[in-house]
């Protein structure tokens, strides 16, 4: 995008007629400057594209409807014309003006996974509000239900209180125990609380993508262990842990124990699990 060449500027060294004429032309040109430079100020240099793209990170190559002046290194924002809240953002790696093809590396998305074919492609950053904005997807469980028969160190729960959104898949079976799979990358807040049925000290906590599902949490690979908590040896040992983790799509969180039996299973929300995707 280029600015209109300015006309001859007014000068007091010429005739009065020339001064008046040049002044009118100059002020007319100046009046149009805001409209020409506004796209550079606001980042609103944009074009449309009808290329079919799936929302997600990595390389994307939308073909623009018209030629433009995009260049390598500029930050780019691509959002659906039908649903503007579905978007991708990244940086331009190449632009070929002849084919109007823009190569982009996407590093951030709205979290959606739609495949769409009507886009607005804009130079500039996505409209992200600073600070947390609560949760968009949440699962809450209470009441213990023993542990898995195959995955003997993985806790089970009896009562589902809340299950909203699609960012988390919850599964619970008699053999495998409970698992929580992240479908959308992002920050997740997790709270796990448990109780042992007799006055013996125990550990419990969370594991991430662990394959050691029959191993006590105190002995699993440390890099897979999060939110470990200790229950002292009183009448009914109880404990809890709260963590905030960044999960990639496909990551699996499990409530992990240090013993296969003896856990409190009676009704009550002092045994429970909650996971929520935190939006910003």
Helix and strand composition category: mainly beta
Mean pLDDT: 82
Query: What top-tier CATH class of the largest domain fits best?
Result: Mainly Beta
Total DSSP E strands: 18
The SSE order reads: HHEEEEEEEEEEEEEEEEEE
Which key terms come to mind for this protein?
single chain; 280 residues; mainly beta; Elongation Factor Tu (Ef-tu), domain 3; Jelly Rolls; 2 domains; six-stranded antiparallel sheet; five-stranded antiparallel sheet; 2 helices
Explain how this protein is built.
With 280 residues, the chain is mainly beta. It folds into two domains: 43-123, Elongation Factor Tu (Ef-tu), domain 3; 135-278, Sandwich (Jelly Rolls). The protein is built from two helices and 18 strands. The strands form four sheets. A six-stranded antiparallel sheet has the order 1-8-4-5-6-3, with no helix packed on it. A five-stranded antiparallel sheet has the order 10-9-18-13-16, with no helix packed on it. The chain has a five-stranded antiparallel sheet with strand order 11-12-17-14-15, with no helix packed on it.
């Amino acid at each position: 995008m280029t600015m209109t060449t300015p006309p001859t500027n007014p000068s007091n060294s010429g005739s009065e007629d020339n001064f008046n004429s040049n002044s009118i032309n100059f002020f007319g040109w100046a009046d149009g400057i805001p409209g020409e430079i506004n796209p550079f100020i606001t980042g609103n240099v944009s074009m449309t594209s009808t290329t079919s793209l799936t929302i997600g990170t990595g390389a994307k190559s939308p073909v623009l409807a018209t030629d433009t002046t995009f260049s390598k290194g500029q930050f780019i924002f691509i959002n659906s014309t039908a649903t503007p809240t579905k978007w991708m953002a990244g940086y331009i790696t190449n632009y070929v003006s002849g084919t109007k093809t823009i190569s982009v590396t996407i590093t951030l998305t709205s979290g959606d996974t739609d495949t769409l074919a009507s886009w607005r492609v804009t130079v500039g950053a996505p409209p992200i509000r600073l600070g947390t904005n609560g949760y968009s997807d949440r699962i809450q469980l209470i009441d213990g239900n023993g542990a898995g028969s195959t995955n003997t160190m993985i806790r089970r729960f009896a009562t589902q209180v809340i299950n909203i959104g699609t960012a988390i898949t919850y599964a619970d079976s008699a053999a495998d125990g409970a698992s929580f799979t992240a479908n959308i990358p992002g920050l997740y807040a997790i709270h796990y609380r448990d109780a042992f049925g007799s006055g013996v000290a125990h550990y419990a906590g969370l594991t991430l993508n662990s394959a050691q599902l029959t191993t006590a949490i105190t002995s699993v690979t440390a890099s897979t262990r999060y939110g470990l908590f200790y229950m002292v040896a009183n009448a009914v040992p109880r404990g809890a842990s709260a963590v905030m983790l960044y999960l990639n799509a496909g990551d699996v969180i499990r409530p992990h124990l240090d013993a296969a039996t003896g856990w409190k299973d009676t009704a009550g929300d002092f045994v429970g699990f909650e996971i929520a995707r935190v939006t910003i």
